Amino acid sequence: MKVLHLFFLLFIGFSYYSSAQLVNIEKKRIAYKEGFQGNINFSFNIIQNTSKITQGSNTTHLQFVKKKHTFLILNDYTIMKVKSENDKYDLIDQNFQHFRYNYSIIDTNKFNFEFFIQRQQNKIKYIDLRFLTGTGLRFCIFDNEFASFYIAPLFMYENEILSDSAHTNTKMIKASIYSSFGFVLTDKVCFNNVIYYQPALVDLASMNNFEPVEDFRLFSESSLSFQIFKKIHFAMVFELAYDSRPPDELIDKPLFYNLKNELIFKF
Q: Which of 25, 59, 62, 126 has its CA at a distance of 20 to 30 angstroms from the CA of residue 99?
């Protein structure tokens, strides 16, 4: 089967598919507010190129806040029906589930303890399974009605099983350091940027031929969003990712980018 670059079409815009392997959790956070919040995103695409691709996606984000406690649950699922060269159809799915708990140590949303668990599968990126769990602190440098800036040094355990030619199976302790910045341009337009840096610290499977910090991932996402209606938002998003040690099949493509448009319903 011949896998193609994917195009993200949500009635308007386009997307160039990338193999970036990080998930931007900062983007999934919802503004701090007591009680239950969330948003649901649906898309359905039909693509005809050298092959025919039918794609359906659903993203559900739920957040619950009670005093100093914040719970975030994410579930993203995409399934594609791809026509191969022998006129048969293959089903390809990619998904991730994420749970994150925040506890405000000093002041509401200013100095937080974080704990998270994540599971991810993506056949196109050669990920049979990626399991993460980690913890750390998240600091608010400033946050007001015009702008915000957060930084978080975390540590995590990663177990990754790839479907590449080497059938790679790694178990590592990594740092996961990220910063998040956003500012309001008008009452209906805002800009956000997040940068992740994830260097490997300890290889739990084997210490042979392992170079700490030389094995790392770097990811940046910038978005410009517009409020169209009260609960409907449109966003232009640009992602840039670098993997120092990608799967064997992507060894000559360590740098990836993704440009996409999104239509989001918030409640």
A: 126
Burial 57-93 (b: 16+ CB within 10 A, else e): bebebbbebeeeebebebebebebebbeeeeeeeebe
Residues in contact with 186: Cβ distance below 8 Å, sequence separation at least 6, in sequence order: none
| Pairing state between β 147-162 and 216-227 | unpaired
Q: Is the overall model pTM greater than 0.85, yes or no?
A: no
Q: What is the pLDDT along the chain (267 residues), one digit of tens a residue?
A: 333 332 222 222 223 233 334 555 555 555 557 888 887 877 777 766 556 778 788 888 889 998 889 999 999 888 877 776 666 767 777 888 999 999 988 766 688 999 999 999 887 778 889 999 999 999 989 888 899 999 999 999 999 998 877 778 889 999 999 999 999 998 889 999 999 999 999 888 776 655 666 788 999 999 999 989 888 888 898 999 898 887 766 667 778 888 888 877 776
Alpha carbon distance 211, 232 (integer Å): 46
Domains of the chain: 26-266 (2.40.160.40)
Three-state DSSP at 143 gives strand
Cβ-based neighbours of 209, under 8 Å, separated by 6 or more: none
Number of helical H runs and strand E runs in the chain: 0, 12
| Contact criterion met (CB below 8 Å) for 138 and 102 | yes
One-letter amino acid identity for 85?
E
Question: Which contacts of 228-233 are long-range, i.e. CB under 8 A and separated by 24 or more positions?
Answer: 231/265, 231/266, 231/267, 232/263, 232/264, 232/265, 232/266, 233/263, 233/264, 233/266
Q: Read out DSSP for 33-46?
A: -SEEEEEEEEEEEE
Does residue 193 contact residue 224 with C-beta atoms inside 8 Å? no
